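User: Sequence in, structure out. Go.
Assistant: Echoing your sequence, followed by the structure tokens.
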Amino acid sequence: MKVKMLIASDDARYTMKLSEQISKNHSDTLEVFVCSNPDVLEETILLEKVEIVLIDQMFVKYIEEIKATLPLIMRSETPSDEASGEFTKIEKYGRISEIVADILETYSKVSKKAIIGGQGKAAGITAVWSPAGGVGKTTVALAAAVAAVQNGKRVFYLNLETFSSIPIYFDEGRKSISSVFEMLESNEGDVKMLISGISTEENGITYLSKPGNYDDVNILSAENIEELILSCGALTDELFIDISLPCDERTKKVFAMAGKVLLVSDRTETAKTKLSQFISQNSIFDSIREKTDLVANKGAVLDGETVQSVHSLPMAATLSESLVYKELAQHFTRSNI
């Protein structure tokens, strides 16, 4: 269900820019109404039952009468002398994308915990994992994500590594994923709304910035992981989840929710030996066998008899970590992953 938001302002140009930005990037989350006449403000709020109201200086005297969950005041360079109490202020003339992000983040903390539908199983959820480190797991995850973008999909990349690779591949985003972890642990607030507010998009891929501390990932339970995946999945067409090496309860939860599992190895004997042990000795593999593809990275040759198919990726021509996944994406595009 969308959250209804009213923008009350006599600044038509600003209102148009703000509402267009929201409609373009957050139409799945917010439904926007506008009001430029103070005389019909209260009537509009009652009629639409809005939850977020963003008030310009011209309307600030009505702030005490508004019963919305989140009343916000636009703060300009010439603030009004009208009393506005302790209501939250939003900088009017900042970057529009940052304003919208602040609104969503603020609302997520005061709203009720959202119930996200679905059974947690979808072809749009792809888990990427390896029992061995250094095989290029993150590169593979991002290459598959870029291939999905090239196929016209909205894509979300969720990095759940203990030590995040996000800074290698993306610019630093608005806020750390740790704020999402904190909300999950507290079991309060709207996680989906928070993610929508603080996530960043680059090259068609939406992502969350690295944790503030490596211990932050470790506070998550399997149930937290499930809610996190459902919240991210509700915002996109395809969700790619990059998982740390330990095959613990959280990893098992990701496997269970995924519609596809990419199991990555390279040509080193260490990686192939660990992969063989996982396939032959770990009962978890039997539960994911039917939805698992092997990814033979860096020119590896792997036996694919135990899985649905094998994606063979060559050694990349570039040595740049930030570019190699874009090169390898073409192989996934041809493979129709």
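User: And one key feature?
Assistant: Residues 267 and 300 are 4 Å apart (CA to CA).
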